[in-house]
Amino acid sequence: MVLTRSEDINRALRVVKENPNKYLIICTGHQGERNSFLDKLTSGVYHYKLSSEDGIIFSSETIPTPVNIANKMALLKRLESSGVQIADDVHVSGHAYRNDLKTFLKILKPIHFIPSHGGIDKISAAINVGNELGYQLNKTSHILLDHQELEL
After folding, report:
1. The model's pTM
2. What is the DSSP string of the chain?
3. pLDDT tens per residue across span 88-137
4. Are 105 and 130 within 8 A, CB to CB?
5. Rounded to whole angstroms, how far apart are CA atoms 33 and 68?
6. pLDDT by residue (tens digit) across 24-38?
C-alpha cells in the first residue's frame, strides 16, 4: 500500500489526538501561506479538529506584503472560529536570541532538542545553548540537514 503525504500526516495526527498532552506540533504556515500545514489543518484537509484546548504560537511578525497580510488574516479567522488559543507576534527578529532559547528550553524541557531553522551558524549556536543546559550532541541534541530523518 502506498500512503500519500496527507495519509501519513493524518495517521500522525490521530496519534496526537489520542494523547494531546504528550505532543507539540511544530509546523509551517505562520504567514498564512497556501498549502502550508496550518492552512491545510484549518481548511479541513487534515482530519484533526482544533479546539479551545489547543494553542498556536506565531513566532514571528507577518511579513508586510498584501498577500501575506490577507492570508494571515484568513488563517487567524479560521483559528479563532475553532476557539484555539492564539499567541501572535511572540518574537520579532525571526531567530530567537540566546536568552529566549534558554527560556524556551527551560519551559518546555524537551527530551530531545533539534534546532531546525537558519544556517549552520544559527543551528550551531543553538546547539551550544543546549549544551549549556545539559543536552549532549547526538544523544539529546541533534543537527539535521534538509531531508534528513532521525528515529528517536
Report:
1. 0.62
2. -PPPHHHHHHHHHHHHHHSGGG-----S-TT--TTSHHHHHHTTSSS----TT-EEE--SPPP-SHHHHHHHHHHHHHHHHTT-EEE-S--SSSS--HHHHHHHHHHH--SSB---SS-HHHHHHHHHHHHHTT--BTTTB----TT-----
3. 877 656 667 888 889 889 988 999 999 987 788 889 999 999 999 999 99
4. yes
5. 7
6. 888 888 899 988 999
